[in-house]
UniProtKB/TrEMBL annotation:
Residues spanning the membrane: 42-66
Location of the Phosphodiester glycosidase domain: 219-360
Domain of life: Bacteria
Protein name (record): Phosphodiester glycosidase family protein
Keywords annotated in UniProt: Glycosidase, Hydrolase, Membrane, Transmembrane, Transmembrane helix
InterPro entries the record matches: NAGPA
Single annotated GO MF: hydrolase activity, acting on glycosyl bonds
């Protein structure tokens, strides 16, 4: 007899309105021998319980990362959660598997050629300059054949009393990646002071220095740049100390930024000329030195994890950043979208650094901004087109950074 709509509804009601998959599963269980049916049922329930616990754990632990303030992308936040919850191996594996090498050869675009000439940079126009030639940096030697107009030439960005205090330059990073650019910033330490700011996640905790630039922290602000690798877990393989508090123990032999009470900054190897004194306000270590005593410390090979950390392969050409100090005590910062550890080290040395260290890497973490305008309404400008927005540090930052101010 053919069932009509009413009969169909009655059959569904008699079955409790359960979905077809539920009826099918019960049918499979009924076909099993009684001695097997019970264990299978309990095994299924145990698996579902584990899945539920994992889902709840992920939901509870990942929420603070996704809901936190700041400008970090969703992908970066998820990766941070993974690294903080024993999944660094998975994040690094995914980064390595999805890595696409930048093209070799080729030519710069019209926009990149303008960058070499300083076109578009927020240049002031002083009426006079009191700077002696010895106070200014020399051009960065070209790293690729047939230097282009403006390649490695410094362009003033920030002046104080007619004296350049921040200058920027761009050049091709090496002889192979000739369609890419690396970017450098020179900072006149005689006219500037440097402050280390904590991130609300890295290193986390409570600090007297804010995790964003607001209020009095905007006075005299002329630049900011990113910090180093994570210290929790310790991807930096080094320490973090500030204002009498140690977030991660300092490690002798690691590269370090050392911040002093007078606003000065030194860069070198902790325990080798740089030690704890009453004048030290903060120390930020990150991996092994890239340049020490004027010599590049990186070979053509990737190096070991003990040197360069447990992140994406060190011979990969990705977004990287580094900072160094010149023989005259000025500070140079270098970053770019397609740098290996070795090319970063070579560029820092070429920019004048006698001691230098790697800072953060990957497009989500590299940033350098200069600022113009009044402290009540700062106008940030990016060194190059990295992922983070120009106002990254004008709101709470998840990772530590350095602010640079006029003295």
């Amino acid at each position: 007899m053919r069932l009509g709509p009413l009969s169909t509804e009655r059959h569904a009601a008699a079955d409790g309105g359960r979905p077809e998959s539920g009826r099918r599963r019960r049918g499979v269980l009924r076909r099993l021998p009684p001695r097997v049916r019970g264990p299978v049922k309990w095994s299924f329930r145990a698996v579902m319980a584990v899945v539920l616990v994992i889902a709840v754990y992920v939901g509870v632990t990942i929420y603070p990362y996704l809901s936190g303030p700041g400008t970090d992308s969703v992908a970066a936040r998820v990766a941070e959660w993974g690294r903080d919850h024993h999944l660094s191996w998975a994040v690094s594996w995914l980064e390595n598997e999805t890595y696409t090498a930048p093209p070799t050869g080729g030519n710069l675009s019209a926009a990149q050629r303008k960058a070499l000439l300083g076109v578009g940079a927020p240049h002031p126009h002083p009426t006079a300059s009191s700077a002696a030639p010895a106070d200014l940096p020399t051009a960065i030697p070209a790293q690729a054949a047939n230097p282009l107009p403006g390649e490695g030439v410094w362009h003033p960005v920030t002046y104080e009393a007619g004296t350049p205090v921040i200058e920027e330059a761009a050049l091709r990073p090496d002889a192979q990646h000739t369609s890419e650019l690396a970017y450098a910033a020179w900072m006149n330490q005689k006219a500037l002071s440097f402050n280390l700011h904590p991130g609300y996640q890295q290193p986390g905790g409570s600090w007297p220095v804010p995790d964003q630039l607001t209020g009095s922290a905007l006075n005299g602000l002329v630049a900011t740049f990113n910090g180093g690798f994570k210290v929790h877990p310790n991807d930096a393989l080094g320490g973090y100390y500030a204002d009498g508090t140690t977030a991660s123990p300092l490690v002798t032999g690691k590269a370090a930024e050392v911040f002093y009470r007078d606003g000065s900054l030194k860069i070198g190897v902790w325990g080798s000329g740089l030690t704890m004194t009453p004048d030290v306000v903060a120390v930020r270590e990150n991996l092994s030195p890239l340049v020490e005593g004027g010599a590049v410390q990186v070979g053509s090979e990737a190096g070991s994890s003990a040197q360069w950390g447990y992140t994406i392969n060190n011979d990969y050409y990705i977004a990287r950043s580094g900072v160094g100090i010149t023989a005259s005590g000025d500070i140079v910062y270098v970053s770019g979208a397609a740098l290996s550890v070795q090319t970063l080290a070579q560029l820092l040395k070429a920019a004048g650094a006698v001691n230098a260290m790697e800072l953060d890497i990957n497009p989500d973490w590299v940033s350098f901004m200069t600022y113009s305008g009044h402290a009540s309404d700062p106008n940030p400008a990016k060194l190059w087109d990295f992922t983070q927005p120009a106002d990254r540090y004008l709101q709470p930052a998840s990772r530590d950074f350095v602010s640079v101010h006029l003295r």
